[in-house]
Design goal:
mainly alpha
Length: 222
C-alpha cells in the first residue's frame, strides 16, 4: 500500500468530513452571493462580485454564527458527558462505573502523551484540554460573528441613510441575540435527539452506535 493510500485509509473519516465541510461552504458562498445580490437589487443597489461577497460582513457573519453554535455544543457535550449519564445511550458512560481521575497504573507510560508523563499542572490542564480548546474556538467564532455582523449592519444602515452602531450597541440588540439563540437551541436539540435515539436505534458498524444485538438498557458502545 502506498503512503498516500495508507494516509487516506488511516484518516478517511476526517478527510471525508472536511471534504463535505468544504463542499457545503462553497455551496453556501455560491448561493449566498446570488441571494445577497437579489436583495441588493430589490433596494436599487449594484451587485457585488463573488470575491467582494466572500469578504463581506454578510457572508462572514452567517458562517461564523454557525461555527460558534457547533463549538458551543461540542464543548458542553465534552463537559457534560464527563459527569452526567444517560442510561441506555451510546453517547454516555455507564452510570454504574466511576472512572478514576488518575491514569491506569498498568498503562505503558512511555506511550502516553507527553502531558501525562510530565504530570503536575500540565497533566491537569491536559485533562480538560478538549473542552477548553472547543470553548476557545467558540469564543473566537463568537467574536468574528459579532464584529462581522456589526460591519454588515452598519453597511445596511449607511445604505438606508441611518446612523451606524457601535459594537456594544449591536451586541445588546435583540436581533443579535435572536440570531445566536436560534442556532444554539437547534444544536442542543440535535445533540439531545442523538443521545435519546441511540438508546433504541442502531447503525451497524458505527462507533457512535451500540451493537445491533445490544439490549436497550446497555449504556455506552462497549
Amino acid at each position: 500500500m502506498t503512503r498516500l493510500r495508507q494516509f487516506a485509509h488511516n484518516n478517511g473519516l476526517s478527510l471525508a468530513v472536511f471534504a463535505m465541510f468544504f463542499a457545503f461552504l462553497c455551496a453556501e458562498s455560491a448561493t449566498g452571493v446570488r441571494a445577497y445580490n437579489n436583495d441588493r437589487g430589490d433596494h436599487g443597489l449594484p451587485p457585488v462580485t463573488y470575491a467582494q461577497f466572500l469578504t463581506s460582513g454578510r457572508f462572514i457573519e452567517a458562517t461564523a454564527e454557525n461555527w460558534e453554535s457547533e463549538f458551543l455544543e461540542m464543548a458542553f457535550y465534552a463537559l457534560l458527558t464527563s459527569f452526567l449519564y444517560q442510561r441506555g445511550s451510546a453517547e454516555s458512560r455507564s452510570p454504574d462505573t466511576h472512572p478514576s481521575s488518575k491514569p491506569p497504573k498498568d498503562r505503558a507510560r512511555d506511550r502516553a502523551p507527553w502531558p501525562v508523563r510530565r504530570g503536575g499542572w500540565v497533566l491537569r490542564l491536559y485533562e480538560h484540554s478538549l473542552s477548553g480548546a472547543l470553548l476557545v474556538l467558540f469564543c473566537a467564532a463568537f467574536m468574528i460573528h459579532s464584529t462581522s455582523g456589526l460591519h454588515d449592519f452598519n453597511v445596511s444602515q449607511i445604505e438606508h441613510g441611518r446612523p451606524t452602531a457601535t459594537l456594544a450597541e449591536f451586541m445588546s440588540s435583540p436581533e443579535f441575540w435572536f440570531q445566536s439563540f436560534q442556532n444554539w437551541q437547534s444544536e442542543f436539540l440535535g445533540l439531545g435527539s442523538m443521545i435519546v435515539l441511540s438508546i433504541f436505534l442502531r447503525q451497524r458498524g458505527s462507533p457512535e452506535s451500540k451493537p445491533v444485538d445490544a439490549p436497550h438498557s446497555q449504556t455506552g458502545t462497549g
